[in-house]
Specification:
Layout: H1 2-20, E1 30-36, H2 43-46, H3 56-62, E2 64-66, E3 69-70, H4 78-87, H5 91-94, E4 100-102, E5 109-111, E6 120-121, H6 125-128, H7 149-157, E7 163-167, H8 170-177, E8 183-188, E9 191-195, H9 204-211, E10 221-223, H10 229-236, E11 256-258, H11 267-275, H12 278-293, E12 303-309, H13 311-319, H14 324-347, E13 353-358, H15 367-373, E14 380-382, H16 384-399, E15 409-411, E16 415-418, H17 420-426, H18 430-442, E17 447-452, H19 453-458, H20 466-472, E18 482-486, E19 490-492, H21 505-508, E20 509-510, E21 512-516, E22 522-524, E23 528-529, H22 532-541
Parallel strand pairs: 1-12, 1-13, 2-22, 3-23, 7-8, 7-12, 14-19
Antiparallel strand pairs: 2-21, 3-20, 4-5, 6-9, 8-9, 10-11, 13-21, 15-16, 16-18, 17-18
Helix pairs in contact: 4-8, 12-14, 13-14, 16-18
Length: 555
């Protein structure tokens, strides 16, 4: 009896120690990445007074707002951006150097998620046309060279976790989901499709969703501003501005009829739809249906949902960041986001989720806008063919003209691949030709800096110089011998609109807003990176970060 009493007394004495031990919080039921293509960080400040309470404001006021988030690579495009969000590394590791690149074996341009062994599933053959049925239309994440945070979740929990991603664009859905995703879906001519990489047949609920023909039902719908035009004038300037789009049935001013400029549905209609905010509404409806049908947040372990809204990028390219079209798209997207967050709250509970809102890149002001408001600042549109002509002339002068139909290079974005056959014909090294090419490019007035392959590969990937940013975005097996950076507010010549893809802050500065389980509220002004997202997610989900991730845990 004394022995028993002694044991009980000792146990009671230890009880407060055990009671005081910290208990790990339960893992979130659902982890969500929401990306908005071409969402510049300043949009959340500029348009905030006109948002409702349930969308962007709900995240900003209830979460952690990292207001000084930047990409640390130089090729600020959709595919490299989504890959970096998902993996915590840049293209020097994940390999997604651009949206498209020249394959150095075939010398053909390839899409970043192109996979000829993974044909599309769910495409309406009668309506799609031959391009969507060709082998080059096949899609998968096979080009991605690094694991994603969603892959880590699947490696940890297997079938107990579901990974689901969706976007208006193929690359955005595929790269967010990673290589182990259960499903990735995107819009092709009004139908949500996938590829054989994921499955051979659409689920019945998606077939039913497509059969509703929601996109086609918007044919002829009019897009007008939600608020008084005077508000847009005060925030953005005039509706009719030089450099804005006049294509696919749209004029430069509101209202806009979404019909592609034709009396019946055609390819131009689908392009017009992609530019109209109804495409964001369509994706939001699809994701809400997926929450129910895929039972996201209802499995034994944490599920992952990746959503990427692409319409802002389409309309931003067409009209520029200072347009009425961009402002109205943001106000309408705010409503879509509010509806989606309400649906998540109903089905899972926002308290059981962790969410990050971010973007793949920003956008530059249109040259015409700069010239009309800040005449002292150089700006303009360039022709890459002019650079090509100057380069050919300089190389011919330095080394002699090439024989026959041979040519020195192929331009690939803001850079050049040198043709091995040309170098062999003249018995020249890559370094010899690159030096001459660099020198002539630096003589072109719109070009700010030029780097050769040797310079990039010799540079350490640390620091914030343009060379360091180029190194982080450079993957040697797919990249060019010479790359250049245009001066600010100069861009490839198009009849209208703007673009992105530079190391300047207009393109690198994006939002990073965390919300939900384990997220302390607050505004943070220290400079952080997009690469921090994957590592922070890993900490919140209690799983290892992607093994190559280079970011830090933010909280």
């Amino acid at each position: 009896m004394k022995l028993l009493l002694g044991f009980v007394t000792a146990a009671l004495a230890l009880a407060p120690v055990f009671a005081a031990a910290p208990v790990a919080p339960p893992s979130p039921r659902l982890a969500i990445t929401i990306t908005v293509d071409q969402l510049r960080a300043d949009y959340l400040v500029r348009f905030r007074p006109y948002f409702g309470e349930g969308g962007f404001k709900r995240l900003l006021e209830g979460g952690a707002d990292f207001q000084n988030t930047h990409y640390r690579h130089s090729v600020t495009q959709t595919a490299p951006g989504h890959a970096s969000i998902a993996t915590g590394v840049y293209a020097n590791v994940h390999g997604i150097v651009s949206n498209e690149w020249i394959d150095r074996d075939s010398w053909e341009q390839v899409n970043n998620v192109e996979d000829r062994d993974s044909l599309l599933v769910g495409v309406d053959a009668a309506a799609a046309g031959p391009a969507l049925l060709a082998p080059k239309a096949g899609r998968s994440p096979r080009s991605l060279q690094a694991p994603t945070i969603a892959d880590q979740l699947k490696l940890r929990h297997g079938a107990q976790s579901k990974v689901f991603s969706a976007s208006n664009k193929d690359r955005s859905a595929i790269l967010l989901g990673g290589k182990l995703a259960d499903a990735a879906y995107w819009d092709e001519n009004g139908s949500m499709v996938t590829s054989r990489y994921y499955r051979d047949k659409l689920p019945a609920w998606i077939e039913a969703f497509n059969a509703e023909r929601r996109v086609q039902a918007t044919f002829g719908k009019v897009w007008d501003r939600l608020k008084d035009p005077a508000i847009y004038d005060a925030v953005q300037g005039p509706d009719d501005a030089p450099g804005e789009n006049v294509g696919y049935g749209f004029t430069r001013t509101f209202p806009k009829k979404v019909d592609g400029g034709a009396a019946m549905i055609s390819g131009a209609f689908y392009t017009a739809f992609d530019n109209a905010p109804f495409s964001a509404e369509f994706l939001g409806e699809f994701v809400q249906r997926a929450l129910r049908e895929e039972q996201l947040g209802q499995h034994k372990a944490t599920d992952f949902l990746g959503v990427s809204f692409s319409q802002l990028d389409s309309v931003g390219h067409a009209y520029g960041p200072d347009s009425h079209e961009v402002m109205d798209s943001m106000l309408r997207l705010d409503r879509v986001l509010a509806s989606l967050l309400d649906a998540i709250d109903r089905h899972v509970g926002l308290k059981n989720c962790v969410i990050v809102l971010t973007a793949d890149h920003g956008a530059q002001a249109m040259p015409e806008r700069v010239q009309s408001t800040r005449a002292a600042i150089p700006a303009g549109r360039i022709k890459g063919a002019d650079f090509d002509a100057a380069a050919r002339k300089a190389l011919d002068a330095a080394f002699g003209a090439l024989p026959g139909e041979e040519y020195w290079f192929l331009r690939d974005g803001a850079g050049y691949h040198l043709r091995p056959s040309a170098l062999a014909a003249k018995k020249l090294s890559v370094e010899e030709v690159s030096r001459v090419l660099k020198a002539v490019l630096l003589q072109q007035a719109p070009i700010a800096q030029v780097f050769t392959r040797a310079e990039i590969l010799a540079a350490p990937p640390e620091g914030d110089s343009f060379l360091a940013m180029a190194r982080r975005g450079y993957y040697a097996p797919r990249d060019r011998e010479v790359v250049y950076v245009l001066k600010p507010y100069f861009m490839d010549k198009h009849p209208f609109g703007t673009t992105h893809g530079t190391p300047y802050e207009d393109d690198t500065h994006v939002p990073q807003v965390w919300f939900g389980a384990g997220v302390p509220r607050g505004v943070h002004v220290e400079r952080v990176g997009v690469e921090d997202i994957a590592t922070t997610f890993a900490g919140l989900l209690g799983i290892p970060a992607p093994p190559q991730a280079q970011g830090r845990r933010l909280f």
